[in-house]
């Protein structure tokens, strides 16, 4: 398996800063924002985006990040039944607010579909937006990210490996050639 680094730590920081600015611009400020990361790495990315928004708009209402577990809403539980549910922690009511879902890699769209189902059980947001550090294409559902750190076209035999300081001890995104698997992350 060969790996090629496509984003280093500085690249990831720049991408998340740009995403934070784009979120603020599209929402016309930080008011009524709720940022929810999809475990595992989406939670760390959501926290970084919320902190960046706080630095950009230091005198505004604080934006808090939370997490949204989608384990029990996935459509592949029969194929992969051994999954440990993560914690859902919503920092504020979502009714009437703009919710930004954050994930590390947008691939088939199935995780985001599960997130939308989970979100509808919590409340009724005014709008739902999607931020992804990497969009690799290969959509199976009509889902598109509103905010993307890097578009990274890839083949189905490749894997996108996101590593973050909070979960893995370092920041990088690598694309790995993996000819043994037809469908990867």
Number of helical segments? Answer: 4
Count of discrete domains: 1
What's the level 1 CATH class?
Answer: Alpha Beta
Q: SS-based structural class? A: alpha/beta
Distance, first to last CA: 15 Å
Helix share bin: 25-40%
The strand line-up of the biggest sheet is 3-2-4-5-6
Secondary-structure arrangement, i.e. CATH architecture: 3-Layer(aba) Sandwich
Enzyme class: transferase
Function: Regulates the transcription of the pyrimidine nucleotide (pyr) operon in response to exogenous pyrimidines.
Keywords: Glycosyltransferase, Transcription, Transcription regulation, Transferase
Protein name: Bifunctional protein PyrR
Would you summarize the structure shown here?
The chain is of the alpha/beta class. The protein has helices at residues 9-27, 41-56, 110-122, 165-168, and strands spanning 3-7, 33-37, 65-67, 98-106, 127-135, 147-151, 158-163, 172-177. The chain is built from 4 helices and 8 strands; from the N terminus they run βαβαββαβββαβ.
What are the salient characteristics of this protein?
26% strand; transferase; 3-stranded antiparallel β-sheet; 4 helices; Rossmann fold; 5-stranded parallel β-sheet; alpha/beta; 185 residues; single chain
Question: Which helices and strands appear, and what pairs or packs with what?
Answer:
Layout: E1 3-7, H1 9-27, E2 33-37, H2 41-56, E3 65-67, E4 98-106, H3 110-122, E5 127-135, E6 147-151, E7 158-163, H4 165-168, E8 172-177
Parallel strand pairs: 2-3, 2-4, 4-5, 5-6
Antiparallel strand pairs: 1-8, 7-8
Keywords: Glycosyltransferase, Transcription, Transcription regulation, Transferase
Catalytic activity: UMP + diphosphate = 5-phospho-alpha-D-ribose 1-diphosphate + uracil
Function: Regulates the transcription of the pyrimidine nucleotide (pyr) operon in response to exogenous pyrimidines.
């Amino acid at each position: 398996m060969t790996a090629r680094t496509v984003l280093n730590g500085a690249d990831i920081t720049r991408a998340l800063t740009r995403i934070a600015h784009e979120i603020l611009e599209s929402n016309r400020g930080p008011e009524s924002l709720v940022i929810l990361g999809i475990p595992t790495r989406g939670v760390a990315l959501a926290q970084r985006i919320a902190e960046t928004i706080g630095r950009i708009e230091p005198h505004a209402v604080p934006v808090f990040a939370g997490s949204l577990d989608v384990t029990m809403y996935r459509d592949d539980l029969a194929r992969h039944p051994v999954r440990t549910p993560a914690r859902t922690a919503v920092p504020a009511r979502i009714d009437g607010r703009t919710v930004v879902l954050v994930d590390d890699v947008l691939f088939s769209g199935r995780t985001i579909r599960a997130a939308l189902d989970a979100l509808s059980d919590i409340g009724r947001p005014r709008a739902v937006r999607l931020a992804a550090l990497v969009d690799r294409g290969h959509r199976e559902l009509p889902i598109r990210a509103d905010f993307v750190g890097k578009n990274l076209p890839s083949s189905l035999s490749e894997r996108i490996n996101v590593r973050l300081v909070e979960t893995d001890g370092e920041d990088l995104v690598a694309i790995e050639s993996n000819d043994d698997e037809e469908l990867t992350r």
